[in-house]
Write a structure and sequence with these properties.
The protein has 142 residues and is mainly α. It has four helices and no strands. The longest helix has 41 residues. The protein is flat and about 60 Å long. GO terms for molecular function: SNAP receptor activity; SNARE binding.
Amino acid sequence: MSSDFESYEQDFAVLTAEVTGRIAKVPKLLGDEKKQMVASVEKQLEEARELLEQMELEVREIPAQSRGMYSSRMRSYKQEMGKLEADFKRSRIAYSDEVRNELLGDDGNSSENQRAHLLDNTERLERSSRRLEAGYQIAVET
């Protein structure tokens, strides 16, 4: 059973590495190329979510004495997934800011500061929500 989990782990590692590389390219692309890359990244992120779901199912089937180790690995994978999704959002926003500034002809510093502040607050809210969900899940399991 743990061999299935380890296989999923390897697939997840390869997939997240590909996604990270593609996310870095998104702000530099224009037009249809950018749209294709964004669609590709979204598809890969969905695949990664599905892998996480499969890994969770495997963890549930593992005997209780070794489940703790796998559960902690799952938490780190979920955090990594959250970070990838946030990075993807930022890369798309970075591009839209450049286009906006070009069209409007302003520097947009205050807008960038507000956007960065909003992103920070959104991430903080998402982390808090994940902690609450994890706490609720623990409560339900006990």
